[in-house]
Amino acid sequence: MSVFAYRHGELHAEALPVSRLAAEVGTPFFCYSHAAIASAYDEFATAVKGLPALVCYALKANSNLAVIASLARRGAGADVVSEGELRQALAAGIPPEKIIFSGVGKTAAEMRFALETGIRQLNIESLPELRLLDQVARAVGRKAPVALRVNPDVDARTHAKISTGKAENKFGIELGLIREAYREAAGLAGIEVRGLALHIGSQLTDLEPYRAAFTRLAELTAELRRQGLAVDRLDLGGGIGIAYRGEQPPSIADYVRVVRETVAPLGTELVFEPGRRLVGNAGILVSRVLFVKPGASRDFVIIDAAMNDLLRPALYDAYHAILPVAEPASDAPVKRFDVVGPICESGDRMAEQRPLPPLQPGDLLAICQAGAYSAVMGSGYNTRLPAPEILVHGDAFDIVRARPDYQAILARDHVPGWLEPVPGPQSQAKGARGAAE
Ligand SMILES: Cc1ncc(COP(=O)(O)O)c(C=O)c1O
Ligand SMILES: N[C@@H](CCCC[NH3+])C(=O)O
């Protein structure tokens, strides 16, 4: 059951009416539900019970500190792809031995930081990266625990921009080279090669690509072992989808059944890296209608959230359900609208020709499934400030990322978010004097 549901004629987030949250926080804002995050994690944890498994939440889906901390408290590890995410995981209380560092382009500085922190494993995606890590590890006097990511050349049957396991994708070491790479890794003084990793794509709603990839991984593991190489960890990546528009993604129990049938008999440690499935359904983006603009060919609803807040529709033509916060009467007339933001691009459109009940300026809309790849993909385009984020638990909520205010920016105070303080006229004048002196 969704934690975002209509009660007493309006949308609630757990026990709180969304209109009350909007009045207190201001729009647009992201609203996350603690209960939804907890129940998604628990579904995963229950399904892997009995397996030697670690669930490492992929922070890229949502790296809000409070969200990560909710998962950390339930025992999750982390899958990170940058020094920033690694620092964020540590700050949220995830112990280093539960952290995996993935990604196709780690810098030497990131490698050094990861080794000094003592994380569980770095997933390596190419021979040049392996050799650089070997050098860095020897320079800091450590042995780097490594899994080699293989590209299994499997079609994940998802959007081309988020498919990662085909030979033409940049990810992983290709099947034809992986055996040689593993042998090389096993001989490097700075590397302790522990196993293999893969991740075939995101928003998968079908189990067959997983079965194909895991079967290849099992065959490869058996082959490496026959050659006398130790393989004691398999990292199966993430990718399990959620329903945005009536898709029927598999249950975690069914997904884990495929794992039990393919790789589990090898007896290795298993790592899972779910992102979207843990947090995607746990968030909405709440926005206010600014104007309703009838047009000759289309009618527009102009809202105060934009592609800088939620990029998915513009980037992938992604569908997100949009709900009026005030529950429409069952017999309310419905018209088709393009729901658009204020940014100066025609692509700044949350929905195209979406059937909606009559709307007025000031009405609130909830854009659904905004817990994953939403706030994290935000930008400052059109010099818009980042939308605040709140976390609801029961009948209480915390502001877990505040809206910066322009006065604070101008006063050069600390600004949460990525916007740099704007130098005020005074400091500019001082700078100019300094240069002349
Ligand atoms: C290596 C890796 N692991 C895990 C994930 C998380 O994916 P998802 O959010 O689809 O579970 C990704 C992103 O697709 C990834 O690139
Ligand atoms: N950003 C993508 C998911 C990418 C997954 C990262 N490997 C999305 O919004 O669906």
UniProtKB/TrEMBL annotation:
<keyword id="KW-0210">Decarboxylase</keyword>
<keyword id="KW-0457">Lysine biosynthesis</keyword>
<dbReference type="InterPro" id="IPR002986">
    <property type="entry name" value="DAP_deCOOHase_LysA"/>
</dbReference>
<comment type="function">
    <text>Specifically catalyzes the decarboxylation of meso-diaminopimelate (meso-DAP) to L-lysine.</text>
</comment>
<feature type="binding site">
    <location>
        <position position="316"/>
    </location>
    <ligand>
        <name>substrate</name>
    </ligand>
</feature>
<feature type="binding site">
    <location>
        <position position="373"/>
    </location>
    <ligand>
        <name>pyridoxal 5'-phosphate</name>
    </ligand>
</feature>
<feature type="modified residue" description="N6-(pyridoxal phosphate)lysine">
    <location>
        <position position="60"/>
    </location>
</feature>
<keyword id="KW-0456">Lyase</keyword>
<feature type="binding site">
    <location>
        <position position="373"/>
    </location>
    <ligand>
        <name>substrate</name>
    </ligand>
</feature>
<feature type="binding site">
    <location>
        <position position="312"/>
    </location>
    <ligand>
        <name>substrate</name>
    </ligand>
</feature>
<comment type="pathway">
    <text>Amino-acid biosynthesis; L-lysine biosynthesis via DAP pathway; L-lysine from DL-2,6-diaminopimelate: step 1/1.</text>
</comment>
<dbReference type="GO" id="GO:0008836">
    <property type="term" value="F:diaminopimelate decarboxylase activity"/>
</dbReference>
<keyword id="KW-0028">Amino-acid biosynthesis</keyword>
<comment type="similarity">
    <text>Belongs to the Orn/Lys/Arg decarboxylase class-II family. LysA subfamily.</text>
</comment>
<dbReference type="InterPro" id="IPR022653">
    <property type="entry name" value="De-COase2_pyr-phos_BS"/>
</dbReference>
<dbReference type="Pfam" id="PF02784">
    <property type="entry name" value="Orn_Arg_deC_N"/>
</dbReference>
<feature type="binding site">
    <location>
        <begin position="273"/>
        <end position="276"/>
    </location>
    <ligand>
        <name>pyridoxal 5'-phosphate</name>
    </ligand>
</feature>
<protein>
    <recommendedName>
        <fullName>Diaminopimelate decarboxylase</fullName>
        <ecNumber>4.1.1.20</ecNumber>
    </recommendedName>
</protein>
<dbReference type="InterPro" id="IPR022644">
    <property type="entry name" value="De-COase2_N"/>
</dbReference>
<keyword id="KW-0663">Pyridoxal phosphate</keyword>
<feature type="domain" description="Orn/DAP/Arg decarboxylase 2 N-terminal">
    <location>
        <begin position="37"/>
        <end position="279"/>
    </location>
</feature>
<feature type="binding site">
    <location>
        <position position="345"/>
    </location>
    <ligand>
        <name>substrate</name>
    </ligand>
</feature>
<dbReference type="InterPro" id="IPR000183">
    <property type="entry name" value="Orn/DAP/Arg_de-COase"/>
</dbReference>
<feature type="binding site">
    <location>
        <position position="276"/>
    </location>
    <ligand>
        <name>substrate</name>
    </ligand>
</feature>
<feature type="binding site">
    <location>
        <position position="239"/>
    </location>
    <ligand>
        <name>pyridoxal 5'-phosphate</name>
    </ligand>
</feature>
<feature type="active site" description="Proton donor">
    <location>
        <position position="344"/>
    </location>
</feature>
<dbReference type="InterPro" id="IPR022657">
    <property type="entry name" value="De-COase2_CS"/>
</dbReference>
<dbReference type="InterPro" id="IPR009006">
    <property type="entry name" value="Ala_racemase/Decarboxylase_C"/>
</dbReference>
<dbReference type="GO" id="GO:0030170">
    <property type="term" value="F:pyridoxal phosphate binding"/>
</dbReference>
<dbReference type="GO" id="GO:0009089">
    <property type="term" value="P:lysine biosynthetic process via diaminopimelate"/>
</dbReference>
<comment type="subunit">
    <text>Homodimer.</text>
</comment>
<dbReference type="InterPro" id="IPR029066">
    <property type="entry name" value="PLP-binding_barrel"/>
</dbReference>
